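User: quick one, sequence for these C-alpha coordinates?
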Protein backbone atom coordinates (compact mmCIF):
# COMPACT_ATOMS: atom_id res chain seq x y z
CA UNK A 1 0.00 0.00 0.00
CA UNK A 2 2.86 2.36 0.92
CA UNK A 3 4.62 1.56 -2.35
CA UNK A 4 1.41 2.19 -4.29
CA UNK A 5 0.95 5.56 -2.55
CA UNK A 6 4.54 6.49 -3.28
CA UNK A 7 4.10 5.56 -6.94
CA UNK A 8 0.92 7.62 -7.08
CA UNK A 9 2.78 10.63 -5.68
CA UNK A 10 5.50 10.23 -8.32
CA UNK A 11 2.94 9.97 -11.10
CA UNK A 12 1.12 13.04 -9.81
CA UNK A 13 4.35 15.02 -9.67
CA UNK A 14 5.22 13.95 -13.19
CA UNK A 15 1.78 14.98 -14.40
CA UNK A 16 2.16 18.41 -12.77
CA UNK A 17 5.50 18.90 -14.48
CA UNK A 18 3.97 17.87 -17.79
CA UNK A 19 1.05 20.25 -17.29
CA UNK A 20 3.39 23.07 -16.38
CA UNK A 21 5.44 22.39 -19.49
CA UNK A 22 2.25 22.38 -21.52
CA UNK A 23 1.23 25.75 -20.13
CA UNK A 24 4.64 27.23 -20.92
CA UNK A 25 4.84 25.89 -24.48
CA UNK A 26 3.91 28.40 -27.19
CA UNK A 27 3.15 27.49 -30.79
CA UNK A 28 3.49 30.31 -33.33
CA UNK A 29 2.02 30.16 -36.83
CA UNK A 30 4.10 30.95 -39.90
CA UNK A 31 2.50 31.85 -43.24
CA UNK A 32 4.65 30.71 -46.15
CA UNK A 33 3.78 31.36 -49.80
CA UNK A 34 6.29 29.17 -51.64
CA UNK A 35 5.83 25.40 -52.11
CA UNK A 36 7.10 22.86 -49.55
CA UNK A 37 9.67 21.70 -52.10
CA UNK A 38 11.21 25.16 -52.56
CA UNK A 39 14.55 25.60 -50.81
CA UNK A 40 13.31 28.70 -48.95
CA UNK A 41 10.84 26.37 -47.21
CA UNK A 42 13.04 23.34 -46.64
CA UNK A 43 16.51 24.82 -46.19
CA UNK A 44 15.77 28.21 -44.62
CA UNK A 45 12.37 28.51 -42.91
CA UNK A 46 12.17 24.96 -41.58
CA UNK A 47 15.80 25.08 -40.44
CA UNK A 48 15.15 28.35 -38.63
CA UNK A 49 12.00 26.91 -37.01
CA UNK A 50 14.00 23.96 -35.67
CA UNK A 51 16.68 26.35 -34.42
CA UNK A 52 14.02 28.33 -32.51
CA UNK A 53 12.65 25.19 -30.88
CA UNK A 54 16.12 24.07 -29.86
CA UNK A 55 17.17 27.50 -28.61
CA UNK A 56 14.03 27.80 -26.43
CA UNK A 57 14.37 24.19 -25.22
CA UNK A 58 10.99 23.37 -26.72
CA UNK A 59 9.13 26.27 -25.11
CA UNK A 60 8.46 27.91 -28.49
CA UNK A 61 7.52 25.95 -31.60
CA UNK A 62 6.83 27.23 -35.11
CA UNK A 63 3.91 25.68 -37.04
CA UNK A 64 4.04 26.35 -40.75
CA UNK A 65 0.51 26.78 -42.03
CA UNK A 66 -0.58 24.37 -44.79
CA UNK A 67 -1.24 27.30 -47.12
CA UNK A 68 -0.56 31.06 -46.99
CA UNK A 69 -3.20 33.27 -45.40
CA UNK A 70 -2.83 35.94 -48.08
CA UNK A 71 -0.99 36.87 -51.26
CA UNK A 72 2.80 37.47 -51.13
CA UNK A 73 2.47 41.31 -51.14
CA UNK A 74 0.16 41.11 -48.10
CA UNK A 75 2.58 39.32 -45.81
CA UNK A 76 4.02 42.30 -43.95
CA UNK A 77 0.51 43.46 -43.13
CA UNK A 78 -0.56 39.93 -42.17
CA UNK A 79 2.18 39.92 -39.53
CA UNK A 80 1.44 43.46 -38.39
CA UNK A 81 -2.25 42.64 -37.87
CA UNK A 82 -1.49 39.28 -36.26
CA UNK A 83 -3.42 37.23 -38.83
CA UNK A 84 -0.32 35.03 -38.75
CA UNK A 85 2.24 35.26 -35.98
CA UNK A 86 5.17 35.17 -38.40
CA UNK A 87 5.48 35.91 -42.10
CA UNK A 88 8.16 36.46 -44.68
CA UNK A 89 8.18 38.38 -47.92
CA UNK A 90 9.81 40.83 -50.29
CA UNK A 91 9.96 44.39 -48.97
CA UNK A 92 9.35 45.99 -52.35
CA UNK A 93 6.20 44.02 -53.02
CA UNK A 94 4.99 47.16 -51.23
CA UNK A 95 7.31 49.69 -52.88
CA UNK A 96 5.71 52.85 -51.51
CA UNK A 97 5.77 51.61 -47.91
CA UNK A 98 9.36 50.40 -48.08
CA UNK A 99 10.97 53.09 -50.21
CA UNK A 100 13.75 53.31 -47.62
CA UNK A 101 14.92 49.85 -48.76
CA UNK A 102 15.05 50.65 -52.49
CA UNK A 103 18.78 51.38 -52.42
CA UNK A 104 19.51 47.66 -51.87
CA UNK A 105 17.62 46.65 -55.04
CA UNK A 106 19.44 49.01 -57.42
CA UNK A 107 22.42 47.76 -59.48
CA UNK A 108 25.83 46.88 -58.04
CA UNK A 109 24.77 45.96 -54.49
CA UNK A 110 26.75 42.75 -54.42
CA UNK A 111 27.08 39.18 -55.62
CA UNK A 112 27.55 37.48 -52.26
CA UNK A 113 24.18 36.84 -50.68
CA UNK A 114 25.47 36.09 -47.19
CA UNK A 115 27.42 39.36 -47.01
CA UNK A 116 24.51 41.28 -48.53
CA UNK A 117 21.91 39.82 -46.18
CA UNK A 118 23.92 40.58 -43.05
CA UNK A 119 24.86 44.05 -44.32
CA UNK A 120 21.16 44.79 -44.90
CA UNK A 121 20.35 43.61 -41.38
CA UNK A 122 23.04 45.84 -39.91
CA UNK A 123 21.80 48.77 -42.01
CA UNK A 124 18.26 48.23 -40.77
CA UNK A 125 19.49 48.12 -37.18
CA UNK A 126 21.48 51.34 -37.52
CA UNK A 127 19.17 53.48 -39.66
CA UNK A 128 15.65 52.10 -39.98
CA UNK A 129 14.40 50.09 -37.01
CA UNK A 130 12.92 53.11 -35.19
CA UNK A 131 11.25 54.69 -38.23
CA UNK A 132 7.42 54.57 -38.40
CA UNK A 133 7.43 52.24 -41.41
CA UNK A 134 8.78 49.34 -39.41
CA UNK A 135 6.55 49.61 -36.35
CA UNK A 136 4.00 46.95 -35.48
CA UNK A 137 6.27 44.00 -36.13
CA UNK A 138 9.42 42.53 -34.67
CA UNK A 139 11.82 42.10 -37.56
CA UNK A 140 13.63 38.77 -37.19
CA UNK A 141 15.94 38.87 -40.18
CA UNK A 142 16.63 40.16 -43.67
CA UNK A 143 17.82 38.58 -46.89
CA UNK A 144 19.00 39.32 -50.42
CA UNK A 145 19.76 36.92 -53.25
CA UNK A 146 23.25 37.76 -54.47
CA UNK A 147 22.56 39.81 -57.56
CA UNK A 148 20.07 39.39 -60.38
CA UNK A 149 21.11 38.66 -63.97
CA UNK A 150 19.71 39.16 -67.48
CA UNK A 151 18.60 35.93 -69.15
CA UNK A 152 17.54 35.54 -72.78
CA UNK A 153 16.00 32.79 -74.83
CA UNK A 154 17.81 33.19 -78.13
CA UNK A 155 20.72 35.63 -78.01
CA UNK A 156 23.53 37.01 -75.91
CA UNK A 157 22.97 40.38 -74.24
CA UNK A 158 26.34 42.13 -74.35
CA UNK A 159 25.83 45.63 -75.73
CA UNK A 160 23.12 48.25 -75.14
CA UNK A 161 21.81 47.51 -78.63
CA UNK A 162 21.30 43.84 -77.71
CA UNK A 163 18.90 44.84 -74.95
CA UNK A 164 17.02 47.54 -76.86
CA UNK A 165 13.34 46.72 -77.49
CA UNK A 166 13.65 43.25 -75.97
CA UNK A 167 10.59 42.13 -74.00
CA UNK A 168 11.92 41.19 -70.56
CA UNK A 169 9.92 39.65 -67.74
CA UNK A 170 10.43 41.48 -64.48
CA UNK A 171 9.03 41.41 -60.97
CA UNK A 172 8.65 44.90 -59.58
CA UNK A 173 8.74 48.66 -60.07
CA UNK A 174 12.49 49.04 -59.57
CA UNK A 175 13.24 46.40 -62.20
CA UNK A 176 10.67 48.05 -64.46
CA UNK A 177 12.39 51.41 -64.15
CA UNK A 178 15.82 49.92 -64.85
CA UNK A 179 14.62 48.13 -67.97
CA UNK A 180 12.83 51.19 -69.30
CA UNK A 181 15.95 53.31 -68.82
CA UNK A 182 17.96 50.65 -70.66
CA UNK A 183 15.61 50.72 -73.65
CA UNK A 184 14.01 47.32 -73.03
CA UNK A 185 10.29 46.57 -72.77
CA UNK A 186 9.38 45.40 -69.23
CA UNK A 187 6.65 42.76 -68.87
CA UNK A 188 5.34 42.19 -65.34
CA UNK A 189 4.77 38.52 -64.53
CA UNK A 190 5.52 36.05 -61.71
CA UNK A 191 8.90 34.35 -62.00
CA UNK A 192 7.47 30.79 -61.96
CA UNK A 193 5.69 31.58 -65.26
CA UNK A 194 8.88 32.41 -67.16
CA UNK A 195 9.06 29.06 -69.02
CA UNK A 196 5.63 29.39 -70.61
CA UNK A 197 6.10 33.13 -71.24
CA UNK A 198 9.26 32.53 -73.28
CA UNK A 199 7.82 29.43 -74.97
CA UNK A 200 4.73 31.36 -76.09
CA UNK A 201 6.70 34.40 -77.25
CA UNK A 202 5.22 36.74 -74.66
CA UNK A 203 8.73 37.68 -73.52
CA UNK A 204 12.21 37.34 -75.02
CA UNK A 205 14.01 37.04 -71.70
CA UNK A 206 13.73 37.50 -67.97
CA UNK A 207 15.37 39.07 -64.94
CA UNK A 208 16.13 36.41 -62.34
CA UNK A 209 18.86 35.32 -60.00
CA UNK A 210 20.78 32.39 -61.48
CA UNK A 211 19.25 29.88 -59.07
CA UNK A 212 15.74 30.68 -60.31
CA UNK A 213 16.55 29.47 -63.83
CA UNK A 214 16.99 26.02 -62.32
CA UNK A 215 14.46 26.18 -59.48
CA UNK A 216 11.71 27.51 -61.75
CA UNK A 217 12.63 24.92 -64.42
CA UNK A 218 13.35 27.53 -67.08
CA UNK A 219 16.73 26.20 -68.23
CA UNK A 220 15.32 24.88 -71.52
CA UNK A 221 13.96 28.33 -72.37
CA UNK A 222 16.71 30.63 -71.06
CA UNK A 223 20.11 29.59 -72.42
CA UNK A 224 21.92 32.95 -72.59
CA UNK A 225 22.95 34.63 -69.36
CA UNK A 226 24.51 38.05 -68.79
CA UNK A 227 26.08 38.36 -65.36
CA UNK A 228 26.53 41.97 -64.33
CA UNK A 229 29.39 42.36 -61.80
CA UNK A 230 27.74 43.29 -58.50
CA UNK A 231 24.31 42.40 -59.88
CA UNK A 232 21.99 44.14 -62.35
CA UNK A 233 19.40 44.38 -59.56
CA UNK A 234 18.52 42.57 -56.36
CA UNK A 235 15.62 41.78 -54.06
CA UNK A 236 15.19 42.39 -50.33
CA UNK A 237 13.35 40.04 -47.99
CA UNK A 238 12.12 40.06 -44.40
CA UNK A 239 11.16 37.62 -41.66
CA UNK A 240 8.73 39.33 -39.29
CA UNK A 241 6.69 38.56 -36.17
CA UNK A 242 3.61 40.36 -34.91
CA UNK A 243 4.75 42.85 -32.27
CA UNK A 244 2.01 41.90 -29.81
CA UNK A 245 2.94 38.23 -30.11
CA UNK A 246 6.58 39.10 -29.55
CA UNK A 247 5.78 41.16 -26.47
CA UNK A 248 3.90 38.25 -24.87
CA UNK A 249 6.98 36.04 -24.93
CA UNK A 250 9.19 35.79 -21.87
CA UNK A 251 12.47 37.67 -21.86
CA UNK A 252 14.31 34.34 -21.84
CA UNK A 253 12.47 33.17 -24.95
CA UNK A 254 12.98 36.50 -26.73
CA UNK A 255 16.69 36.25 -26.08
CA UNK A 256 16.77 32.64 -27.23
CA UNK A 257 14.86 33.39 -30.44
CA UNK A 258 17.15 36.29 -31.31
CA UNK A 259 20.16 34.05 -30.74
CA UNK A 260 19.12 32.23 -33.93
CA UNK A 261 17.51 35.22 -35.69
CA UNK A 262 18.70 38.67 -36.73
CA UNK A 263 22.23 38.33 -38.08
CA UNK A 264 22.07 34.55 -37.64
CA UNK A 265 18.94 34.21 -39.78
CA UNK A 266 20.40 36.58 -42.37
CA UNK A 267 23.51 34.40 -42.58
CA UNK A 268 21.36 31.29 -42.93
CA UNK A 269 19.36 32.92 -45.71
CA UNK A 270 22.40 34.24 -47.55
CA UNK A 271 24.54 31.14 -47.27
CA UNK A 272 21.71 29.01 -48.70
CA UNK A 273 21.19 31.41 -51.62
CA UNK A 274 24.93 31.35 -52.30
CA UNK A 275 24.84 27.54 -52.28
CA UNK A 276 21.88 27.47 -54.65
CA UNK A 277 23.59 29.92 -57.01
CA UNK A 278 26.77 27.85 -57.10
CA UNK A 279 24.82 24.67 -57.86
CA UNK A 280 22.79 26.40 -60.59
CA UNK A 281 25.92 27.81 -62.25
CA UNK A 282 27.52 24.39 -62.31
CA UNK A 283 24.40 22.77 -63.74
CA UNK A 284 23.83 25.40 -66.43
CA UNK A 285 27.47 25.29 -67.54
CA UNK A 286 27.20 21.51 -67.78
CA UNK A 287 24.25 22.07 -70.14
CA UNK A 288 26.47 24.29 -72.35
CA UNK A 289 24.57 27.48 -71.63
CA UNK A 290 26.28 30.69 -72.71
CA UNK A 291 27.52 33.12 -70.07
CA UNK A 292 28.45 36.70 -70.86
CA UNK A 293 29.64 39.85 -69.18
CA UNK A 294 28.45 43.28 -70.34
CA UNK A 295 30.55 45.22 -72.82
CA UNK A 296 32.16 48.44 -71.55
CA UNK A 297 29.35 50.32 -73.30
CA UNK A 298 26.62 48.32 -71.57
CA UNK A 299 28.36 48.69 -68.20
CA UNK A 300 28.61 52.43 -68.74
CA UNK A 301 24.89 52.56 -69.51
CA UNK A 302 24.01 50.59 -66.38
CA UNK A 303 26.20 52.87 -64.26
CA UNK A 304 24.57 55.94 -65.80
CA UNK A 305 21.08 54.62 -65.05
CA UNK A 306 22.08 53.58 -61.55
CA UNK A 307 23.49 57.02 -60.76
CA UNK A 308 20.25 58.62 -61.91
CA UNK A 309 17.84 56.42 -59.98
CA UNK A 310 19.91 56.49 -56.77
CA UNK A 311 20.06 60.30 -56.88
CA UNK A 312 16.29 60.53 -57.36
CA UNK A 313 15.70 58.12 -54.49
CA UNK A 314 18.09 59.94 -52.14
CA UNK A 315 16.47 63.30 -52.89
CA UNK A 316 13.23 61.91 -51.49
CA UNK A 317 14.74 60.86 -48.15
CA UNK A 318 12.34 62.97 -46.08
CA UNK A 319 9.41 60.87 -47.31
CA UNK A 320 10.91 57.73 -45.76
CA UNK A 321 12.35 59.34 -42.63
CA UNK A 322 16.06 59.02 -43.37
CA UNK A 323 17.99 62.25 -42.90
CA UNK A 324 20.97 61.28 -45.04
CA UNK A 325 20.10 58.43 -47.43
CA UNK A 326 23.54 58.36 -49.04
CA UNK A 327 25.17 57.91 -45.65
CA UNK A 328 22.98 54.83 -45.23
CA UNK A 329 24.00 53.58 -48.68
CA UNK A 330 27.69 54.05 -47.92
CA UNK A 331 27.28 52.23 -44.61
CA UNK A 332 25.65 49.28 -46.38
CA UNK A 333 28.37 49.15 -49.05
CA UNK A 334 31.19 49.41 -46.52
CA UNK A 335 29.63 46.68 -44.37
CA UNK A 336 29.05 44.48 -47.40
CA UNK A 337 32.67 44.75 -48.54
CA UNK A 338 33.90 44.02 -45.02
CA UNK A 339 31.71 40.92 -44.74
CA UNK A 340 32.49 39.68 -48.24
CA UNK A 341 36.20 39.84 -47.56
CA UNK A 342 35.68 37.67 -44.46
CA UNK A 343 33.61 35.02 -46.25
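Assistant:
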Amino acid sequence: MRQTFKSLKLLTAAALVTCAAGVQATTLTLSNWVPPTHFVTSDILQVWAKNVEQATEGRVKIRMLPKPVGSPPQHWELARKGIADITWGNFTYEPDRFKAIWFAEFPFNGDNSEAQSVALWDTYQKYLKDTPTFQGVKLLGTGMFGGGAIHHGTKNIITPEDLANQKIRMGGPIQKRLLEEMGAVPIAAPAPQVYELVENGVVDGSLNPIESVINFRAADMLKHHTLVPGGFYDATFFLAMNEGTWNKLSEADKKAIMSVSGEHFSRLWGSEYDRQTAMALKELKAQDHEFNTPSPELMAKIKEVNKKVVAEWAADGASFNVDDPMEMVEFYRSRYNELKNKN
